[in-house]
Amino acid sequence: MTATEISKAVDDITNAFKDKGINVDKERIETLLNQYVNDFKIPIGSALAPVRKKIASELSVDVPGKSRDTITAKVDEIKDYPQGTWMNIPQAKITKTFGQTKSIKERGLIANEYDKVFFLVNDKATDVPETLEEGKVYQFDNVVTNVFNGDIQIHVNKNSSVKELPDVDIETDKPISITGVVQNVQKGTGYVKRCGECNKVLQKGECPNHGKVDKDNTKEDVRTLFVFDDGKKTYNVYMNAELTEKATGVSVEKALDIIMDSLQPEDVTDLITEKMNLRYGTITVRNGGRYYITDEVDLR
Ligand SMILES: [Zn+2]
Q: 259: CA distance to ligand 1 center in Å?
């Protein structure tokens, strides 16, 4: 949390009271905000409301600006905001729905040209079309972000509304070219075995879908997962065996040679990491949800 963010929040809260003709002690607001953010580890977006409420109760006045601070974000900007941020998303295409479960009306993925984010509609949400359809574009208002299984997702709740935009389409799998630097290579990079049935990566010889897989029914693979930084934002990128070989010289055959030699699959990971780290250049990627999938790579 930066001092600038805190001081901006202090001003926002001070101004909210000032609009009602109430002068507040800026230092008191700052102390409270620091407490929430630094001591209680609450994201600043979520700390504003409780701080306003506490100040109001200390001064025995009504809480000003009862409506939350709702920001407007594009789908690819959602991840830039802390958990607990209320937002309007003017246009988002639903690219995947997983269907109803207990207490959840629908969940799935929304996307724009540049990113995908999970969404969830809880059963208290009323201002939502009966069915949300894959391939259609919707306007999401007053949704809140939270983190689930490590991914930021938007939560459609009783305060939210979702409207279909029948005349709008968004091209969600358009390839984009990004120029920047490989910031780091991530866990999961290197040599893997895949299930011959479903192509999932085996964990200790077991497929998450099919359990123990027969040795003859597996596929050898090499892949690279890395963070790419274009100076404005970072991208989690996936690169398949062919492009990993192009970028690093490490092919599936080479990986198998290394493992035959050293019996250490991590040696493949280490070699790819060494060859990739801090490389500069241009990659062309498509938005695959959790990862951007590389179509082309040209690193110096
Ligand atoms: Zn499988």
A: 24
Could you list the residue range(s) of the whole structural domain that residue 135 is in?
Answer: 70-164
Q: Are residues 292 and 198 in the same domain?
A: yes
Sign of CA dihedral 48, 50, 55, 56: positive
CA of 291 to the centre of ligand 1 (A): 21
Rounded CA-CA distance 116/146 in Å is 15
Region of residue 119 (phi > 0: left; psi between -120 and 50: alpha; otherwise: beta): beta
Q: Is 271 left (phi over 0), alpha (psi -120 to 50) or beta?
A: alpha
- Does one domain contain both 225 and 252? yes
Residue 212 Cα, ligand 1 centroid: separation in angstroms?
9
CA of 56 to the centre of ligand 1 (A): 57
**Number of domains into which the chain is organized:** 3
Q: How far is the CA of 106 from the centre of ligand 1 (A)?
A: 26
Whether 116 and 101 have beta carbons less than 8 Å apart is answered as no
How far does residue 292's CA lie from ligand 1's centre (Å)? 23
For the ranges 28-32, 81-85, 158-162, the lowest mean pLDDT is seen at 81-85
Residue 39, pLDDT > 60, answer: yes
Ligand 1 mean position, distance from CA 213 (Å) = 7
Tokens, residue 45: 């977006």
How far away, in angstroms, is 252 Cα from ligand 1 center?
Answer: 20
Structural domain contains residue 63:
no
Euclidean distance between CA atoms 286 and 165, whole angstroms: 24
Claim to verify: residue 47 and residue 94 sit in the same structural domain: no
* CA 218 – ligand 1 centroid, Å: 9
* Whole-number Å distance between alpha carbons of 188 and 180: 22
* Distance of CA 219 from the midpoint of ligand 1 (Å): 11
- How far is Cα 283 from Cα 298, in angstroms, rounded to an integer? 6
pTM over 0.85: no
- Beta-sheet pairing, 137-148 with 190-195: unpaired
